[in-house]
Design a protein that fits this description.
Structural class: alpha/beta
Helix content: 40-55%
Strand order of the largest sheet: 5-4-1-7-6-8
Length: 193
């Protein structure tokens, strides 16, 4: 099984018009994606922001749940947030994974935008089972990962699509669905009676 990590990317991402921007960190994204990442056995979760002023904000969130009153009231959240790290760039996250795992991770990007060459969850999930190389799943904030980052990815997953044309999930929801599709236990059909 591939060692799997994820990154919540705040740069480079795009705005509604497709311009490359940097977004702000939000408490719910840090907290909720950590819970999903821990549930699905990820080895680490990087909050990627080049804005140094955002790093103390993330650290306060982590400290509250890891060491403060949050840990005393909800120890399971302390466990989930123990895998979170602050990173200034994708390159920094890649370097940390390479140092731990002995090789650079494959980059698997997510995108709500359709396009050529997208990989199904079934194909990528099977690759995670058979390929021992580490994997870094990239989740974009704002209106998604920049084209520059998507071109750099080894794989881009197909968009998550519901039965309607509306397609604007929160990154927290998209991360949970993605992790379940790639790493979740597959339910078995019930035996006929």
């Amino acid at each position: 099984m591939s060692p799997v990590y994820c990154a919540l990317v705040h740069h480079p991402v795009v705005d509604r018009g497709g311009e490359e921007i940097t977004t702000s960190v939000t408490n719910l994204d840090v907290h909720d994606i950590a819970r999903s990442a821990c549930t699905y056995g990820l080895r680490g979760y990087f909050v990627v922001s080049p804005i140094e002023a955002q790093h103390p904000v993330v650290q306060r969130i982590l400290d509250h749940w890891r060491e403060g009153s949050g840990k005393n009231r909800f120890p399971e959240r302390a466990e989930a947030l123990s895998i979170v790290e602050i990173s200034s760039s994708i390159e920094d996250a890649i370097a940390r994974i390479e140092q731990r795992e002995g090789q650079a991770p494959r980059l698997v990007a997510t995108s709500a935008r359709p396009g050529a060459g997208r990989t199904s969850y079934e194909v990528e999930g099977a690759r995670l089972v058979r390929d021992p190389r580490p994997t870094l799943l990239l989740f974009g904030t704002g209106h998604g990962l920049s084209d520059r980052l998507l071109r750099r990815a080894d794989t881009i997953l197909e968009p998550i699509q519901g039965p309607t044309d509306y397609n604007h999930l929160s990154v927290r929801a998209a991360a949970a669905i993605t992790l379940d599709r790639l790493l979740g236990r597959k339910s078995r059909p019930k035996d006929p009676i």
